[in-house]
Amino acid sequence: MDVRVHLPGSIKNGHITITGSKSETNRLLLLSALYPNIIFENASVSDDSDVMHKALCGNNTVIDVQHAGTAMRFLTAFFASQEGREVVLTGSARMKQRPIAILVEALRLLGADIEYLENEGFPPLRIKGRKLTNNRLAVKAGVSSQYITALLLIAPKLENGLELTLDGQATSLPYIQMTLSLLNEVGIDAKFQDNTIIVPPKPEINNLKREIIIESDWSSASYYYSIVALSPEGTSVTLSSYKKNSLQGDSAIVNIYQQFGVETIFNNNNIRLTKARSPEPIAFHLDLNSTPDIAQTIAVTCFGLGIGCRLTGLHTLKIKETDRLSALKTELEKLGAEVSVTDDHISIQPHPGFQSRYQPCSPSLEGPGEVIATYSDHRMAMAFAPLAVKIPVIIQDAGVVSKSYPAFWEDMIRLGFLVDVQ
């Protein structure tokens, strides 16, 4: 399904409730499969978490994770450690192009029995669960934090725990820290010292004092930051449920969007986003090595505001649902931007006529809209949708948002956007 999105008036002063973080949910789903007395609320309502839940609760011998990269990595480690269980883990055509060799090799060094069924280094995998007794391991830290998290999540259930040495600078470090914080929260004494993480064995967890409440997803909040940034001064949107001391690295969006004139006020579990001022029209340079999932949102915001930008630390984007750097380049160039990309950064110079061409209430708003391809990537759909503040956009394959945020289009309507199925 394609949708045409445009804003006939101004943003309504709405209150949007966003479900729990997909990252936290999928970690806790796996931990609760290992320790059934772990209970949590406000789980993510998303395709990725649904895939994780069904895989962990079912008895299928063939498990298709579709586009869910987190599920592929986490479940590879989980089933490798399930003695006597044999599964085939597969996914979409794109998933079969996403590398997993670093994780598979690490698990093999722990004693795992994993076989590639098609191309070496890529899914699908045949996994025969075994007792993993080796407990010392070194992994490359600069490729994907999900490999490291997958190992850490199963570590306390291993007979001898795990001593994991990180080789090189870790990418998406906040996601590793999130994993460690959740392990600590459920009573597992995981420690990160220098470049080594030590997780002691923990056969059972019997001392949980409370139910865990999952914070809402900051990656999903980023699209509302973009909407407010692209709107006139005084525009406000309220989101829940969020907290200042977030485990999620993407909460960095609070400070980043201050540079675009967006102020954030925390009130109990709510945040109120307000366009307090117009940003200075200067070039914007940001290292997103720790928060690559918000790169697309920031890139589109900069373009919509007429601000040049250079975003670095993005080497992981080439192995996501699509090559996100290439996809951004293609779609922004359609709109007139000058874009260059390398393996780890993107530089954007907006079209000099974009701001004057698209003004609120201009005749161009009655046109059919700029067509944005999404490449089976939920973040491409949601990152470009905020441009509808300024111009009509047609988002192709708009249903792809269900991967992380199924209610996205309904929530856009709540703010006053018209979302018409084409």
From TrEMBL:
GO terms for molecular function: 3-phosphoshikimate 1-carboxyvinyltransferase activity. Belongs to the EPSP synthase family. Its EC number is 2.5.1.19. It is found in: Cytoplasm. The active site is at D293. This is 3-phosphoshikimate 1-carboxyvinyltransferase. Its main location: cytoplasm. It catalyses: 3-phosphoshikimate + phosphoenolpyruvate = 5-O-(1-carboxyvinyl)-3-phosphoshikimate + phosphate. Pfam families: EPSP_synthase. It comes from Flavobacterium cyanobacteriorum.
